[in-house]
Amino acid sequence: MRVVAKFGGTSLGNGDRVNRAADSIADAVNEGHEVAVVASAMGSTTDFLLDAITFEADEADEAEIVSMGERTSVRMLKAALGARGIDAKFLEPGTEDWPVITDEHGQVDVEETKRRAKQLAADMAAKGYVPVLTGFLAQDHAGNVTTLGRGGSDTTAVMLGNYMDAEEVVIITDVEGVMTGDPRVVEGARNVGEITVDELRNLSFRGAEVVAPSALSYKTGEMVVRVAHYQHGDLLDGGTKIEGQFENLIDMREEPLACLTAAGRAIRNTPGVLSDLSAVLADADINVDAVSSGMDSISFYVDAAVAERAENVLHQAVIDLNEVSSVTVDSDVAVLRITGGEASGQSALLEDVVVPLADEHVEILDLITSATSIAVFLEWDDREDALELIQDAV
Ligand SMILES: Nc1ncnc2c1ncn2[C@@H]1O[C@H](COP(=O)(O)OP(=O)(O)O)[C@@H](O)[C@H]1O
Ligand SMILES: N[C@@H](CC(=O)OP(=O)(O)O)C(=O)O
């Protein structure tokens, strides 16, 4: 089996851990597996190096300085593997067969990286050595060092796993896998065993960076991605299995929504109005599809079929609450949701969604963005055109 094994900073935090990592790699190689290793900087070296840049440094100098963390790790691991009789070779930006190529801003050149990764896979299979690659680092077309951004070693590993046709990518870290909560914070966190990419992307975009969110978009359906503890010892077993394939999804709600807006100038200064209005809808067993709020209003999107009932219960609430003056309904609203790896803080994706609609004068009634999705609310009659425009753009 071809495996890409990524060792995070914590799993290479000291000499003992480097030895442990080398033992687990050597065991897998001796069992007959083809292993490519991706290494992060030891412990918190990257933070240390970045903190030490207390002067004006341009992007290129910063990348060169910070690269020393990963460059050290691959030399350590290569030597530790050599001590175990394993033929290992370290690869870093600048080495002839280095695979990860980006533009000068760190955007991956997919075609070139794919080509080089496939070549590397063929070479390691033919010659039987273990490549030990610097995670996080890349090289631009002019040969300068670039980075894939903080936490980028996970991306290196899952991307290379994908392009090298690996059966499995193992992310070795300091937790037993994806847990029910951050074990550094909550007590009694348990390993979830299995999790889908979709579930994990919602977690990782929100801080559970046990796998960096940018890595998940490289997960294919066939390739297993596993997260395991460095103390476990066995590269090929245990931890949490991440299932499924990452997709940019565009979803159009099949039934129309109604938008109920409660307005009142006191909303901005009064705690609990959202809670009170949500509670009356919940008491009436009305599901809320989405909520958006402004300074003086709160809008609830509900299924059009229950709009009248929703309007009545909200109207009663308006009468009961001093802070809200009036409620109004806009019927026949469509919603398109775009969910994907690029959604998080990516102004480019937002632009891809909004600009084509604006160019064609399709009115956007509301836009709700979260870390992992963009919801566009439109007139019901505009939905087909909007879907086509967005599908072409993203
Ligand atoms: N739900 C969760 N499950 C597991 N780990 C979590 C979760 N949420 C946050 N974490 C944190 O993620 C950390 C692992 O990521 P990271 O520090 O980037 O490791 P590495 O240095 O190995 O790349 C764990 O130490 C843990 O504190
Ligand atoms: N060393 C880099 C890249 C990385 O992915 O590190 P880790 O795997 O330790 O999170 C960083 O700290 O951002």
UniProtKB/TrEMBL annotation:
Give the UniProt record's GO annotations in the biological process aspect. homoserine biosynthetic process; lysine biosynthetic process via diaminopimelate
CDD domains xref list = AAK_AK, ACT_AK-like
Which domain of life does the UniProt lineage start with? Archaea
InterPro entries cross-referenced by the UniProt entry: AceGlu_kinase-like_sf (IPR036393), ACT-like_dom_sf (IPR045865), ACT_Aspartokinase (IPR054352), ACT_dom (IPR002912), Asp/Glu/Uridylate_kinase (IPR001048), Asp_kinase (IPR001341), Aspartate_kinase_CS (IPR018042)
Q: Pathway involvement?
A: Amino-acid biosynthesis; L-lysine biosynthesis via DAP pathway; (S)-tetrahydrodipicolinate from L-aspartate: step 1/4; Amino-acid biosynthesis; L-threonine biosynthesis; L-threonine from L-aspartate: step 1/5; Amino-acid biosynthesis; L-methionine biosynthesis via de novo pathway; L-homoserine from L-aspartate: step 1/3
Return the GO cellular component terms, semicolon-separated.
Answer: cytosol
Single GO molecular function: ATP binding
| UniProt keywords, alphabetically | Amino-acid biosynthesis, ATP-binding, Kinase, Nucleotide-binding, Transferase
| Pfam families per UniProt | AA_kinase (PF00696), ACT_9 (PF22468)
Q: Which reaction does it catalyse?
A: L-aspartate + ATP = 4-phospho-L-aspartate + ADP
User: What family classification does the UniProt entry report for this protein?
Assistant: Belongs to the aspartokinase family.
Xref: PANTHER family: ASPARTATE KINASE, ASPARTOKINASE
The name of this protein is Aspartokinase
Which species does this protein come from? Natronomonas aquatica
